[in-house]
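Purpose: get a first structural picture of the assembly so the mutagenesis plan has something to point at.
Setup: two entries, given in the order below. No constraints added.
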Amino acid sequence: MNLHDTPAAQPVADPGLTIAGKTYASRLLVGTGKYRDFEETRAAVDASGTEIVTVTIRRVNIGQHANEPSLLDAVPPDRFTILPNTGGCYNAKDAVYTLQLARELLDGHPLCKLEVLGDEKTLFPNMPETLKAAETLVKDGFQVMVYCSDDPIQARILEDIGCVAVMPLASLIGSGMGILNPWNLSLIIEQARVPVIVDAGVGTASDAAIAMELGCDGVLMNTAIAGAREPIRMARAMRLAVEAGREAFLAGRIPRRFAASPSSPMAGRIA
Amino acid sequence: MTSLTIELNGAAHSMRQGETLHDLIDSLDLLGKRVAVAVNREVVPSPRWPKHILFPSDRVEVVVAIGGG
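Result (structure tokens, whole complex):
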């Protein structure tokens, strides 16, 4: 029988990442901080293939910048899903206020990234304040994607509150230390009914691939791309890694074993 | 006209009595720009700016989106 008489079934395409009812082909979310300029930001965003970009909300510099180009000209909201974050907020009140302003800025767009930080040294999430803010925001109609500790109980509580995605850190924000506790992430993934997105800690492409191989629904990163020697090339590397990791997850890896298993058949050996 | 002082993005800012949020945003060359505004930590949508008169000690916040993770 000719091998080509029975073509292997083509794998079913990945249906994509669905957050709050909207489906995205890309499972990579990228931040827009730390780039040299807006041109580099946009080039990296394009190279990453992302459809969701995070932005942060800050006071206008009075008397300056009135006619300078703005970030949202470089990554326009009609082209990308803009995910305003609460970076720099250390309590629930400030985070809620920031996102109310963000919603106004983005014409009522309810999707947001909640992060309430615990301290400047670790930028670890303050979970009690995060839970408080999440409750207020969900009641107010926000679709909350939430940066959280990699604790399955906290993740479940956030899901029960009504968050549309849980986003545990893989290691400290901006640290590039990679996936430090794959077991906790697996526990969260196993139980979650909303997307689980690794947020923070990715340092290089293999970290993103590992997150996806574990079964994460997506990866959010900023510094790993913006801080690379060639950010645009790294953005592409991350796109490929997220796709590769996802495909490997869907394909199902072989089990690890302690014994060798020859790839070539033993039958018909010459010797 | 009498002037008054408000707090704008954390700093003292002088305005004329009776001026509105719309006047303020106009004076900052920010009309038509993608900004959001709050007064005393309450978001004020742009259609309400022309009717929102500012008072002494009002705390006004004008924000934009910038790069961030």
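Chain A has a mean pLDDT of 94.
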